[in-house]
Amino acid sequence: MTELAISETVFTERWAKIRERRTGALCAWHGRLSDLMAVLEQDEPRQTIRTFAQAGLDDVLAAVKALGHIKDAGLIIHGGEGCAAGASALIKQFDQKDSATKLYSTALSENDSILGGEEPLAEAVSRARAQGAKRVIFILRTPMTAINNDDVASVIHQHYEHGSKLVYVPVDGLRSKTALSGLDSLSHACLSDLIEGPGESERIANGRLESERLVNARIDKLLLVSMSESAEDIAEIIESLKSLGINVCSAPRFSSSETFIDSGRYRAALALNAEEGEYLVQGLAHNFGVKALSSLAPVGLRATDAFLQAALLVMTGEADGEAPTGLDSTFDSNLDSTAASPLDLTLGSAKALERVPGRSEAMQAVIAAPGRGIRAFLSGSLPVVASLAEAVKDLGGSVVGAAFPIAEAQSLTDLSRLAEASSDSLTVCVGNEPFEIANILFKNPADVLIGGAGFGRLARDLGALHLSTARRSFYGYRGLSALAEALDFAKKLPKSVSTSRLYQASWLNKPGNWHIKLETL
């Protein structure tokens, strides 16, 4: 377990800084892993840009993905009617209709964008409230309103006393080259205008007597911060933690508004993916005194062990001498999980993990090594890719390439893990560009491509089986068993390469970094 390190001054500023300015994030790289690590070890790495790129998520859609399944909340896309189309499609990727945030659009016309969109926004707020968004309404800026005008402050002032909290998230798809900046902007806005922490004590009447209570008292729970994980990913880790006697809930993905608002009152917070959730975790520590934890993304045997032990050390009292607490059988989100009894700490944390469902089966899978001989390409967030690389190696396979959205100085630990699980000469792509992934696969054939949605055709073209992390969960111990089964299936699958490819050989034979240049100011 390590402590996160973000300068406290960032939480006192009006807006969140983009990743390129806050962490020096590189968003464009294609080459050897060792060369990337050498660049990040420099005091001030030079920024790089792509002169050609395909479409991908921007910071607006990243925020939508994080907020798109908070039940009893409203989400207003403040821009043209088309600005809400991508957001709606992104939300509908998940079959969670009952818990999905209600989506609204201000559907601005050309005149609105120039002369002012205050009236359409006020109407959208009133409509959202009337249709059930009683606790919170998020207002997301778009490129249209970012360029020409912004009437959000006026509308918030008008509606301040009328019920739902209005949270303005200043994402616009323009300032940053990485979608992850949208998660920082979202976290910053919620830390300022939504989340509540422990309050002061007040006197309350009780018949003829008066008693004292603490308003918004500290809640003895662990908060799992999730920005992009599926409901299955979250449920697996929730169940593992509850089996250890840890009282836990998650936010903002697949949570209630109340759970997210209460984030500042929890005892500790731990991000499922530090690259995405560390800003919120550290902000909760700075603003509200929540204990900030950091660990590996819980994918694979070793990383899941580390993740659960990080939570166990704090929440059971081993870290601060407090006695373990009982488990509340309720869970604030729509994910059901069976309550467990408090853990007997005399067993020790390592022994305790043997009680977690699925761990013994995961260990058996590692012993059997069903992925022996399998060559894998990994795509996704770097903390997840690093943990996946270890899992593939533990199951007997090897990694032939990897792609992830950004690389930062604070990414060096995960990059070192990736190098150890594969090789420091591994070819990597920073930016998750499909044609660059195809370039790597063409030169370094793989049996499987493990990554998010949208890579099925690309993988098939180059003779690989796509194991979609959007369709199945590889989180936790059961996730490792699922990965083992998938790799075993891939070994038995007959090899085939498409004769009609998305990218021609002349394109795939190009150097992978021909279009990546140093940025000049």
Topology of this protein?
Blueprint: H1 19-22, E1 29-32, H2 33-40, E2 48-50, H3 59-67, E3 73-78, H4 83-91, E4 102-105, H5 110-115, H6 118-130, E5 136-141, H7 143-147, H8 152-158, E6 165-169, H9 180-193, E7 201-206, E8 209-214, E9 219-226, H10 231-243, E10 248-252, H11 257-261, E11 266-271, H12 274-288, E12 291-293, H13 301-315, H14 349-352, H15 359-368, E13 375-379, H16 382-394, E14 398-404, H17 412-421, E15 427-430, H18 434-443, E16 448-451, H19 456-461, E17 465-468, H20 476-492, H21 505-508, E18 516-518
Parallel strand pairs: 3-4, 3-5, 5-6, 9-10, 9-11, 11-12, 13-14, 13-16, 14-15, 16-17
Antiparallel strand pairs: 1-15, 2-18, 7-8
Helix pairs in contact: 2-17, 3-4, 3-9, 9-12, 10-20, 15-20, 16-17
Structural description of this entry:
It is built from 21 helices and 18 strands. The chain has helices spanning 19-22, 33-40, 59-67, 83-91, 110-115, 118-130, 143-147, 152-158, 180-193, 231-243, 257-261, 274-288, 301-315, 349-352, 359-368, 382-394, 412-421, 434-443, 456-461, 476-492, 505-508; strands at 29-32, 48-50, 73-78, 102-105, 136-141, 165-169, 201-206, 209-214, 219-226, 248-252, 266-271, 291-293, 375-379, 398-404, 427-430, 448-451, 465-468, 516-518. The strands form 5 sheets. A 6-stranded mixed β-sheet has the order 1-15-14-13-16-17, with helices on both faces. It has a 4-stranded parallel β-sheet with strand order 4-3-5-6, sandwiched between helices. The radius of gyration is 24 Å and the shape is globular. Residues 95-99 and 319-347 have low confidence and may be disordered.
